[in-house]
TrEMBL record:
<dbReference type="InterPro" id="IPR017871">
    <property type="entry name" value="ABC_transporter-like_CS"/>
</dbReference>
<dbReference type="InterPro" id="IPR032823">
    <property type="entry name" value="BCA_ABC_TP_C"/>
</dbReference>
<dbReference type="InterPro" id="IPR051120">
    <property type="entry name" value="ABC_AA/LPS_Transport"/>
</dbReference>
<protein>
    <recommendedName>
        <fullName>Probable branched-chain amino acid transport ATP-binding protein LivG</fullName>
    </recommendedName>
</protein>
<dbReference type="InterPro" id="IPR027417">
    <property type="entry name" value="P-loop_NTPase"/>
</dbReference>
<feature type="domain" description="ABC transporter">
    <location>
        <begin position="34"/>
        <end position="283"/>
    </location>
</feature>
<keyword id="KW-0547">Nucleotide-binding</keyword>
<feature type="region of interest" description="Disordered">
    <location>
        <begin position="1"/>
        <end position="26"/>
    </location>
</feature>
<dbReference type="GO" id="GO:0005886">
    <property type="term" value="C:plasma membrane"/>
</dbReference>
<dbReference type="GO" id="GO:0016887">
    <property type="term" value="F:ATP hydrolysis activity"/>
</dbReference>
<dbReference type="GO" id="GO:0006865">
    <property type="term" value="P:amino acid transport"/>
</dbReference>
<dbReference type="InterPro" id="IPR003439">
    <property type="entry name" value="ABC_transporter-like_ATP-bd"/>
</dbReference>
<dbReference type="InterPro" id="IPR003593">
    <property type="entry name" value="AAA+_ATPase"/>
</dbReference>
<feature type="compositionally biased region" description="Low complexity">
    <location>
        <begin position="1"/>
        <end position="21"/>
    </location>
</feature>
<comment type="similarity">
    <text>Belongs to the ABC transporter superfamily.</text>
</comment>
<comment type="function">
    <text>Probable component of a branched-chain amino-acid transport system.</text>
</comment>
<keyword id="KW-0029">Amino-acid transport</keyword>
């Protein structure tokens, strides 16, 4: 049983209310939702992440940037459980998730949008949505929480279908519900990834280059959705190479360089930070 399971808690990203009793009763709304401390990840002789420490404030849109090879993706993979850090700790919402498997991390409420490759291109958009909770929470976990009665199975499918439609409507892709996912444009796929991630009702979303390959009008729409969801209480951490997106939409920016955090602060401070400018000029961005 995880620390979170051992705690009686009622929380909702939408209301941003957290009431807890038990082991982590000291957890407060103004505590950071995510804390990385001295995270190290090595691949043979390469140290991809070299003692990265930073925090993400609850309800913020935080950008993680850095030149190519700075260690951003590896850090994301450590957070979401794809990689186990060699050193350091990762605490999400008061629970130590260091080295937890991806479905356990998702189950805690920290979800990453799926890469396009993970969608099933020959299945419809709606079918892809219906698969999302099973994928993200892990098949075995899904089975373990699945009801035994046939009636309940039918009810659960119906609830999932309803929620899938709500999400598709929110992202304005409900008219594509019966379309094969493989026929969607790059931008529409991003919206589908987003909708799928939200189906599991996470507290925080990790977005890996959400604007890559997205046309300007859809980018605007995606960003509006991000802000709308932020208003509902969701927290975002995004890796994004588009500096306009980072500078105009993130309250807090963390800059990685050579595996560790070079600087962090408000976008305006980061923009004029000489070390950051130098790191970028020295890189191939
Ligand atoms: N599985 C792996 N095996 C070996 N080396 C790896 C592996 N994954 C990443 N690296 C190396 O770790 C370093 C950091 O890579 P990472 O992909 O995390 O950087 P990044 O900041 O996300 O870069 P980019 O912006 O180009 O995606 C690089 O030198 C990369 O070659």
């Amino acid at each position: 049983m995880s620390d979170a399971d051992a705690t009686t808690s009622t929380e909702s990203a939408a209301s941003n209310e957290v009431t807890t009793t038990g082991a982590d009763s000291r957890r407060r709304l103004d505590d950071p939702i995510l804390e990385l401390e001295g995270v190290v990840k090595r691949f043979g002789g390469i140290t991809a992440v070299d003692g990265a420490s930073f925090q993400v404030e609850r309800g913020s849109i935080t950008g993680l940037i850095g030149p190519n090879g700075a260690g951003k993706s590896t850090t994301f993979n450590c957070i979401t459980g794809v990689h186990t850090p060699d050193e350091g700790s990762i605490v999400f919402d008061g629970t130590d998730i260091t080295g937890n498997a991806p479905h356990r991390v998702a189950n805690e409420g920290l979800v990453r949008t799926f890469q396009i490759a993970r969608e099933l291109p020959e299945m419809t958009v709606l079918e892809n949505m219906m698969l999302a909770p099973k994928d993200q929470l892990g098949e075995s976990l899904w089975r373990s929480v699945a009801p035994v009665s046939r009636q309940r199975v039918v009810e659960q499918e119906e609830e999932l279908r309803e929620r899938s439609w709500e999400m598709l409507e929110f992202f304005e892709i409900d008219h594509l519900a019966e379309e094969e996912a493989g026929n969607l444009s790059g931008g529409q796929r991003k919206l589908l990834e987003f909708a799928r991630a939200l189906l599991t009702d996470p507290e925080m979303l990790l977005l890996d280059e959400p604007m890559a390959g997205v046309n300007p009008s859809l980018e605007k729409k995606l960003l509006e959705h991000v802000h709308e969801l932020q208003d509902q209480g969701y927290t975002f951490l995004l890796v994004e190479h588009d500096m306009d997106v980072i500078m105009n939409h993130c309250e807090h920016v963390v800059v990685m360089h050579q595996g560790s955090v070079l600087a962090e602060g408000e976008a305006a401070e980061i923009k004029s930070n000489e070390q950051v400018i130098e790191a970028y000029l020295g890189g191939d961005v």
